[in-house]
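Consortium newsletter contribution from the modelling node. Members have asked for a concrete example of what our holo predictions look like. Here is one, prepared for the iron/sulfur cluster complex that several groups have been discussing at recent meetings.
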Amino acid sequence: MDFTSRLLQWYKNNRRELPWRETRDPYKIWLSEIILQQTRIAQGMSYYHKFLEWFPDVHSLAQATEDKVLGAWQGLGYYSRARNLHHTARIIANEHNGVFPADYKSLLQLKGIGAYTAAAIASIAFGLPKAAVDGNVTRVIARYFGIEEPVDDTAIKKNIEETAAALLDPRQPGNFNQAMMDFGALVCKPGKPDCHICPFAEDCVALSEGMTQKIPLKAKKVKQKQRFFHFFLFYWPEKEPEFLFIEKRKGNDIWKNLYQLPLIETSGPLFEWQQFDTHPVLSKILSQQMSLSIKGTPEKYSHQLTHQRIEAFFYKILLPPEYYSIFEKDFAKRRFGDFAHMGKPVLITRFLERNKFILP
Ligand code: SF4
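And here is the predicted structure:
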Protein backbone atom coordinates (compact mmCIF):
# COMPACT_ATOMS: atom_id res chain seq x y z
CA MET A 1 0.00 0.00 0.00
CA ASP A 2 1.27 3.49 -0.77
CA PHE A 3 1.61 6.31 1.79
CA THR A 4 -1.76 7.90 1.02
CA SER A 5 -3.76 4.65 1.21
CA ARG A 6 -2.13 3.71 4.50
CA LEU A 7 -2.77 7.17 5.91
CA LEU A 8 -6.44 7.12 4.90
CA GLN A 9 -6.82 3.62 6.31
CA TRP A 10 -5.30 4.79 9.59
CA TYR A 11 -7.65 7.78 9.60
CA LYS A 12 -10.70 5.59 9.09
CA ASN A 13 -9.84 3.67 12.26
CA ASN A 14 -8.44 6.47 14.40
CA ARG A 15 -10.03 9.76 13.40
CA ARG A 16 -11.07 12.14 16.13
CA GLU A 17 -14.82 12.71 16.27
CA LEU A 18 -15.14 16.47 16.19
CA PRO A 19 -18.31 18.55 15.65
CA TRP A 20 -16.88 20.47 12.67
CA ARG A 21 -16.24 17.16 10.95
CA GLU A 22 -19.97 16.51 10.78
CA THR A 23 -20.51 19.39 8.39
CA ARG A 24 -19.36 20.87 5.10
CA ASP A 25 -20.68 24.31 5.98
CA PRO A 26 -17.76 26.66 5.18
CA TYR A 27 -18.79 29.06 7.97
CA LYS A 28 -18.45 26.35 10.62
CA ILE A 29 -15.25 24.98 9.11
CA TRP A 30 -13.76 28.45 8.92
CA LEU A 31 -14.70 29.14 12.56
CA SER A 32 -13.12 25.89 13.72
CA GLU A 33 -9.92 26.51 11.74
CA ILE A 34 -9.46 30.03 13.12
CA ILE A 35 -10.21 28.98 16.70
CA LEU A 36 -7.80 26.05 16.49
CA GLN A 37 -4.85 28.11 15.26
CA GLN A 38 -2.48 28.15 18.28
CA THR A 39 -5.17 26.54 20.45
CA ARG A 40 -5.60 22.96 21.65
CA ILE A 41 -8.80 21.18 20.62
CA ALA A 42 -9.88 20.66 24.24
CA GLN A 43 -9.71 24.41 24.86
CA GLY A 44 -11.12 25.47 21.48
CA MET A 45 -14.20 23.22 21.62
CA SER A 46 -16.22 25.35 24.07
CA TYR A 47 -15.39 28.49 22.02
CA TYR A 48 -16.58 26.79 18.83
CA HIS A 49 -19.93 26.01 20.47
CA LYS A 50 -20.17 29.47 22.03
CA PHE A 51 -19.54 31.19 18.70
CA LEU A 52 -22.17 29.11 16.94
CA GLU A 53 -24.63 29.86 19.72
CA TRP A 54 -23.94 33.61 19.75
CA PHE A 55 -23.35 33.98 16.01
CA PRO A 56 -25.11 31.09 14.24
CA ASP A 57 -24.21 32.34 10.76
CA VAL A 58 -21.92 34.76 9.00
CA HIS A 59 -24.58 37.51 9.02
CA SER A 60 -25.00 37.46 12.79
CA LEU A 61 -21.22 37.59 13.24
CA ALA A 62 -21.01 40.49 10.76
CA GLN A 63 -23.71 42.43 12.59
CA ALA A 64 -22.19 41.98 16.06
CA THR A 65 -20.13 44.77 17.63
CA GLU A 66 -16.39 44.25 17.87
CA ASP A 67 -16.66 44.41 21.68
CA LYS A 68 -19.11 41.50 21.63
CA VAL A 69 -16.85 39.40 19.38
CA LEU A 70 -13.79 40.15 21.52
CA GLY A 71 -15.82 39.34 24.63
CA ALA A 72 -16.78 35.96 23.17
CA TRP A 73 -13.14 35.34 22.32
CA GLN A 74 -11.74 36.33 25.71
CA GLY A 75 -9.42 33.75 27.22
CA LEU A 76 -8.33 32.32 23.86
CA GLY A 77 -5.48 34.79 23.28
CA TYR A 78 -4.09 36.01 19.94
CA TYR A 79 -7.00 38.43 19.60
CA SER A 80 -6.06 39.48 16.09
CA ARG A 81 -7.74 36.20 15.07
CA ALA A 82 -11.06 37.48 16.49
CA ARG A 83 -10.68 40.91 14.89
CA ASN A 84 -9.89 39.31 11.52
CA LEU A 85 -12.80 36.89 11.91
CA HIS A 86 -15.14 39.81 12.47
CA HIS A 87 -13.69 41.82 9.58
CA THR A 88 -13.94 38.87 7.19
CA ALA A 89 -17.51 38.09 8.28
CA ARG A 90 -18.44 41.64 7.27
CA ILE A 91 -16.74 41.28 3.88
CA ILE A 92 -18.52 37.98 3.19
CA ALA A 93 -21.88 39.32 4.37
CA ASN A 94 -21.63 42.63 2.50
CA GLU A 95 -19.59 41.87 -0.58
CA HIS A 96 -20.34 38.19 -1.20
CA ASN A 97 -24.02 38.14 -0.15
CA GLY A 98 -23.12 35.94 2.78
CA VAL A 99 -21.74 33.19 0.54
CA PHE A 100 -18.19 31.97 1.08
CA PRO A 101 -16.03 32.10 -2.05
CA ALA A 102 -15.62 28.52 -3.25
CA ASP A 103 -12.10 28.80 -4.63
CA TYR A 104 -8.69 28.82 -3.03
CA LYS A 105 -7.43 32.12 -4.44
CA SER A 106 -10.49 34.10 -3.34
CA LEU A 107 -10.33 32.54 0.12
CA LEU A 108 -6.71 33.66 0.37
CA GLN A 109 -7.79 37.27 -0.20
CA LEU A 110 -9.75 37.28 3.05
CA LYS A 111 -8.18 38.72 6.18
CA GLY A 112 -6.93 36.11 8.64
CA ILE A 113 -7.02 33.32 6.05
CA GLY A 114 -3.53 32.22 5.09
CA ALA A 115 -2.43 29.40 2.80
CA TYR A 116 -3.10 26.66 5.35
CA THR A 117 -6.58 27.83 6.34
CA ALA A 118 -7.58 28.53 2.72
CA ALA A 119 -6.51 25.01 1.73
CA ALA A 120 -8.34 23.50 4.72
CA ILE A 121 -11.60 25.31 3.87
CA ALA A 122 -11.25 24.67 0.12
CA SER A 123 -10.67 20.94 0.60
CA ILE A 124 -13.05 20.21 3.49
CA ALA A 125 -15.98 22.46 2.54
CA PHE A 126 -15.67 22.45 -1.26
CA GLY A 127 -13.77 19.22 -2.03
CA LEU A 128 -11.00 21.07 -3.86
CA PRO A 129 -7.62 19.30 -4.22
CA LYS A 130 -5.46 21.64 -2.10
CA ALA A 131 -3.01 20.26 0.44
CA ALA A 132 -3.06 22.10 3.79
CA VAL A 133 0.45 22.25 5.21
CA ASP A 134 0.97 23.29 8.83
CA GLY A 135 3.50 22.31 11.49
CA ASN A 136 1.95 18.85 11.92
CA VAL A 137 2.07 18.04 8.23
CA THR A 138 5.58 19.44 7.86
CA ARG A 139 6.81 17.23 10.70
CA VAL A 140 5.25 14.05 9.27
CA ILE A 141 6.68 14.64 5.80
CA ALA A 142 10.10 15.72 7.06
CA ARG A 143 10.42 12.61 9.23
CA TYR A 144 8.97 10.10 6.78
CA PHE A 145 11.21 11.29 3.94
CA GLY A 146 14.16 12.01 6.23
CA ILE A 147 14.49 15.72 5.35
CA GLU A 148 17.44 16.87 7.44
CA GLU A 149 17.60 20.46 6.19
CA PRO A 150 15.83 23.25 8.13
CA VAL A 151 12.11 23.10 7.35
CA ASP A 152 11.78 26.88 7.62
CA ASP A 153 14.17 27.34 4.69
CA THR A 154 12.15 28.72 1.75
CA ALA A 155 13.24 26.05 -0.75
CA ILE A 156 12.64 23.20 1.71
CA LYS A 157 9.27 24.63 2.63
CA LYS A 158 8.33 24.65 -1.03
CA ASN A 159 9.57 21.11 -1.41
CA ILE A 160 7.40 19.95 1.50
CA GLU A 161 4.35 21.71 0.06
CA GLU A 162 4.90 20.03 -3.30
CA THR A 163 5.32 16.66 -1.60
CA ALA A 164 2.07 17.15 0.32
CA ALA A 165 0.31 18.12 -2.93
CA ALA A 166 1.65 15.00 -4.65
CA LEU A 167 0.52 12.75 -1.79
CA LEU A 168 -2.98 14.26 -1.58
CA ASP A 169 -5.82 12.05 -2.80
CA PRO A 170 -7.81 14.33 -5.17
CA ARG A 171 -10.92 12.18 -4.68
CA GLN A 172 -11.00 12.93 -0.94
CA PRO A 173 -8.82 15.99 -0.25
CA GLY A 174 -10.68 16.95 2.91
CA ASN A 175 -10.15 13.52 4.44
CA PHE A 176 -6.51 13.51 3.39
CA ASN A 177 -5.82 16.89 5.03
CA GLN A 178 -7.64 15.97 8.22
CA ALA A 179 -5.87 12.61 8.29
CA MET A 180 -2.48 14.34 8.11
CA MET A 181 -3.48 16.74 10.89
CA ASP A 182 -4.70 13.93 13.16
CA PHE A 183 -1.74 11.70 12.40
CA GLY A 184 0.73 14.49 13.23
CA ALA A 185 -1.15 15.36 16.42
CA LEU A 186 -1.74 11.81 17.67
CA VAL A 187 1.15 9.63 16.44
CA CYS A 188 3.98 11.55 14.81
CA LYS A 189 3.93 14.01 17.71
CA PRO A 190 6.35 16.92 18.19
CA GLY A 191 8.22 15.48 21.16
CA LYS A 192 8.53 11.73 21.08
CA PRO A 193 6.60 10.15 18.22
CA ASP A 194 4.75 6.86 18.81
CA CYS A 195 6.67 4.96 16.13
CA HIS A 196 5.72 1.58 17.62
CA ILE A 197 2.09 2.08 16.51
CA CYS A 198 2.88 3.89 13.27
CA PRO A 199 1.72 2.42 9.94
CA PHE A 200 4.81 3.94 8.28
CA ALA A 201 7.37 2.46 10.69
CA GLU A 202 8.74 0.05 8.06
CA ASP A 203 9.78 2.70 5.57
CA CYS A 204 10.13 5.91 7.63
CA VAL A 205 13.60 7.32 7.01
CA ALA A 206 13.83 9.25 10.30
CA LEU A 207 13.04 6.11 12.28
CA SER A 208 15.43 3.86 10.39
CA GLU A 209 18.26 6.40 10.79
CA GLY A 210 17.54 7.22 14.43
CA MET A 211 16.69 10.82 13.53
CA THR A 212 13.16 11.17 14.90
CA GLN A 213 14.29 13.54 17.67
CA LYS A 214 16.36 15.70 15.31
CA ILE A 215 13.80 16.10 12.53
CA PRO A 216 12.22 18.54 11.81
CA LEU A 217 15.14 20.95 12.14
CA LYS A 218 14.57 24.70 12.34
CA ALA A 219 17.19 27.27 11.48
CA LYS A 220 15.68 30.56 12.44
CA LYS A 221 15.56 31.50 16.08
CA VAL A 222 12.65 33.77 16.84
CA LYS A 223 13.82 36.99 18.50
CA GLN A 224 12.15 37.57 21.84
CA LYS A 225 11.34 41.01 23.16
CA GLN A 226 10.76 41.49 26.86
CA ARG A 227 8.22 44.09 28.03
CA PHE A 228 7.28 45.31 31.49
CA PHE A 229 3.66 46.27 32.18
CA HIS A 230 2.40 47.85 35.41
CA PHE A 231 -1.37 47.60 35.85
CA PHE A 232 -3.33 49.52 38.47
CA LEU A 233 -6.56 48.30 39.97
CA PHE A 234 -8.42 51.20 41.61
CA TYR A 235 -11.33 50.03 43.74
CA TRP A 236 -13.34 50.57 46.93
CA PRO A 237 -14.07 49.16 49.47
CA GLU A 238 -11.50 46.51 50.24
CA LYS A 239 -14.14 43.81 50.79
CA GLU A 240 -16.75 43.17 48.09
CA PRO A 241 -15.89 46.12 45.86
CA GLU A 242 -18.42 46.93 43.16
CA PHE A 243 -16.60 48.96 40.55
CA LEU A 244 -13.24 49.17 38.81
CA PHE A 245 -11.81 51.54 36.23
CA ILE A 246 -10.66 50.39 32.82
CA GLU A 247 -9.30 51.78 29.58
CA LYS A 248 -9.41 50.55 25.99
CA ARG A 249 -6.13 49.65 24.31
CA LYS A 250 -5.41 51.76 21.29
CA GLY A 251 -2.73 51.92 18.61
CA ASN A 252 -1.10 49.18 16.64
CA ASP A 253 0.12 46.98 19.43
CA ILE A 254 -0.76 43.65 20.99
CA TRP A 255 -4.29 43.29 22.41
CA LYS A 256 -5.64 46.07 20.19
CA ASN A 257 -9.12 47.25 21.23
CA LEU A 258 -9.23 45.02 24.30
CA TYR A 259 -9.96 46.48 27.72
CA GLN A 260 -7.40 46.63 30.48
CA LEU A 261 -6.67 48.15 33.87
CA PRO A 262 -4.84 51.49 33.59
CA LEU A 263 -1.35 50.61 32.43
CA ILE A 264 2.13 52.11 32.45
CA GLU A 265 4.84 50.36 30.46
CA THR A 266 8.43 50.73 31.61
CA SER A 267 11.73 49.67 30.07
CA GLY A 268 12.65 47.53 33.11
CA PRO A 269 10.89 45.72 35.94
CA LEU A 270 11.18 48.58 38.45
CA PHE A 271 8.38 51.07 38.88
CA GLU A 272 8.79 54.45 40.54
CA TRP A 273 5.70 56.43 41.42
CA GLN A 274 7.02 59.45 39.53
CA GLN A 275 6.44 57.36 36.41
CA PHE A 276 2.73 58.07 36.80
CA ASP A 277 3.71 61.18 34.90
CA THR A 278 4.16 59.09 31.77
CA HIS A 279 0.49 58.09 31.67
CA PRO A 280 -1.68 60.78 30.08
CA VAL A 281 -4.53 60.30 32.51
CA LEU A 282 -2.87 59.03 35.66
CA SER A 283 -0.51 62.00 35.65
CA LYS A 284 -3.50 64.36 35.84
CA ILE A 285 -4.96 62.33 38.65
CA LEU A 286 -1.74 62.36 40.59
CA SER A 287 -1.62 66.12 40.40
CA GLN A 288 -4.93 66.23 42.34
CA GLN A 289 -2.86 65.16 45.35
CA MET A 290 -5.33 62.55 46.47
CA SER A 291 -4.33 60.19 49.23
CA LEU A 292 -4.36 56.73 47.76
CA SER A 293 -3.57 53.65 49.72
CA ILE A 294 -1.69 50.81 48.05
CA LYS A 295 -2.54 47.31 49.23
CA GLY A 296 0.43 45.00 49.68
CA THR A 297 3.21 44.49 47.18
CA PRO A 298 2.56 44.21 43.44
CA GLU A 299 1.68 40.75 42.15
CA LYS A 300 3.76 39.51 39.26
CA TYR A 301 2.49 37.48 36.30
CA SER A 302 4.29 36.41 33.14
CA HIS A 303 2.83 35.81 29.73
CA GLN A 304 4.54 34.38 26.68
CA LEU A 305 3.46 35.56 23.23
CA THR A 306 5.04 34.42 19.98
CA HIS A 307 7.65 37.18 19.85
CA GLN A 308 7.23 38.88 23.19
CA ARG A 309 7.46 38.00 26.83
CA ILE A 310 5.29 40.16 29.06
CA GLU A 311 6.21 40.63 32.71
CA ALA A 312 3.17 42.19 34.35
CA PHE A 313 2.92 43.75 37.81
CA PHE A 314 -0.45 44.43 39.39
CA TYR A 315 -0.93 47.14 42.03
CA LYS A 316 -4.10 47.22 44.12
CA ILE A 317 -5.02 50.74 45.11
CA LEU A 318 -7.92 51.71 47.34
CA LEU A 319 -9.73 54.64 45.79
CA PRO A 320 -12.28 56.43 48.02
CA PRO A 321 -15.57 57.03 46.15
CA GLU A 322 -15.26 60.80 46.43
CA TYR A 323 -12.53 60.52 43.78
CA TYR A 324 -14.64 58.44 41.39
CA SER A 325 -15.87 61.46 39.46
CA ILE A 326 -12.27 62.45 38.60
CA PHE A 327 -11.55 58.94 37.30
CA GLU A 328 -14.82 58.68 35.41
CA LYS A 329 -13.81 61.54 33.14
CA ASP A 330 -11.06 59.49 31.53
CA PHE A 331 -11.62 55.86 32.42
CA ALA A 332 -14.67 53.67 31.97
CA LYS A 333 -16.24 52.66 35.28
CA ARG A 334 -17.53 49.11 35.17
CA ARG A 335 -18.92 46.57 37.60
CA PHE A 336 -16.57 43.66 38.17
CA GLY A 337 -19.31 41.28 36.99
CA ASP A 338 -19.64 43.14 33.68
CA PHE A 339 -15.90 43.35 33.14
CA ALA A 340 -15.73 39.57 33.53
CA HIS A 341 -17.47 39.27 30.14
CA MET A 342 -15.48 41.90 28.27
CA GLY A 343 -12.52 41.18 25.97
CA LYS A 344 -9.31 41.58 27.97
CA PRO A 345 -5.81 40.11 28.10
CA VAL A 346 -5.70 36.75 29.85
CA LEU A 347 -3.14 38.13 32.33
CA ILE A 348 -5.78 40.46 33.74
CA THR A 349 -8.29 37.64 34.00
CA ARG A 350 -5.76 35.57 35.93
CA PHE A 351 -5.04 38.41 38.35
CA LEU A 352 -8.74 39.19 38.97
CA GLU A 353 -9.65 35.53 39.39
CA ARG A 354 -6.79 34.78 41.74
CA ASN A 355 -7.80 37.73 43.91
CA LYS A 356 -11.46 36.64 43.71
CA PHE A 357 -12.58 39.92 42.15
CA ILE A 358 -14.27 37.86 39.43
CA LEU A 359 -15.20 34.20 39.38
CA PRO A 360 -13.41 31.74 37.10
S1 SF4 B 1 7.76 6.05 12.20
FE1 SF4 B 1 7.74 7.54 13.81
S2 SF4 B 1 8.77 9.33 12.95
FE2 SF4 B 1 8.24 7.99 11.24
S3 SF4 B 1 6.29 8.78 10.52
FE3 SF4 B 1 5.86 7.14 11.99
S4 SF4 B 1 5.61 8.20 13.96
FE4 SF4 B 1 6.60 9.62 12.55
